[in-house]
């Protein structure tokens, strides 16, 4: 009941994530519309971060971490253990694939740092759809490529949802730029 209707590929990835996650745990997530903080269960597998209302609930959304940026906000409204993820591709119950800024808060500093490290690692992992040659090529290349990549539907610059942004400066933590994988929520 409730939750996001997943395509076959995304459902397989979610099942795999639940059984053998790369990282999992509760975080508080700030809502995109209501702006309130709610505890959510997160499971990460490869480039995907799924979130739901509880460990057993269907996912409420999927964040494609491939090429995301993690920032630590500094400002009057930020919590001490708050961090943001700018995801080039994410999907939730009420949105299509879009560029979105997420607000998360961990229970303590150690947990926050663990999540940031896990998300940064996932953001730099090659897409499963890239061949082994692309993986080797990416590993050899400059970690901050300067090549222009074509804009993809739902990617950066396609109607960014800036409603989550708060005023204040942000410390930049990482800015990987890698090709985006295909939509994991599509049905084949």
TrEMBL record:
GO terms for molecular function: phosphatidylinositol-3,4,5-trisphosphate binding. It holds the Pfam family PH. Gene3D superfamilies: Pleckstrin-homology domain (PH domain)/Phosphotyrosine-binding domain (PTB). It comes from the Eukaryota. InterPro entries: PH-like_dom_sf, PH_domain, PI-Interact_SigTrans_Reg. Residues 121-150 have a biased composition (Basic and acidic residues). Residues 1-29, 121-188 are annotated as: Disordered. Residues 20-124 form the PH domain. SUPFAM superfamilies: PH domain-like. PANTHER family: PROTEIN OPY1, TANDEM PH DOMAIN CONTAINING PROTEIN. This is PH domain-containing protein. The lineage of its organism: Eukaryota, Amoebozoa, Evosea, Variosea, Cavosteliida.
């Amino acid at each position: 009941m409730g939750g996001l209707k997943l395509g076959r590929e995304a459902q397989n990835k979610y099942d795999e994530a639940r059984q053998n996650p790369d990282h999992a745990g509760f975080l508080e997530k700030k809502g995109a519309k209501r702006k309130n903080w709610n505890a959510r269960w997160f499971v990460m597998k490869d480039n995907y971060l799924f979130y739901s209302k509880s460990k057993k609930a269907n996912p409420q959304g999927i964040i494609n971490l491939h090429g995301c940026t993690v920032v630590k906000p500094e400002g009057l409204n930020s919590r001490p253990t708050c961090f943001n993820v700018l995801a080039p591709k994410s999907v939730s119950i009420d949105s299509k694939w879009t560029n979105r800024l997420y607000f998360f808060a961990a229970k303590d500093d150690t947990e926050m740092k663990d999540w940031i490290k896990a998300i940064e690692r996932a953001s730099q992992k090659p897409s499963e759809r890239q061949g082994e040659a692309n993986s080797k090529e990416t590993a050899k290349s400059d970690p901050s490529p300067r090549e222009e990549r074509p804009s993809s539907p739902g990617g950066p610059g396609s109607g960014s949802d800036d409603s989550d942004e708060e005023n204040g400066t942000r410390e930049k933590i990482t800015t990987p730029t890698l090709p985006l994988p295909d939509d994991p929520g599509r049905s084949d």
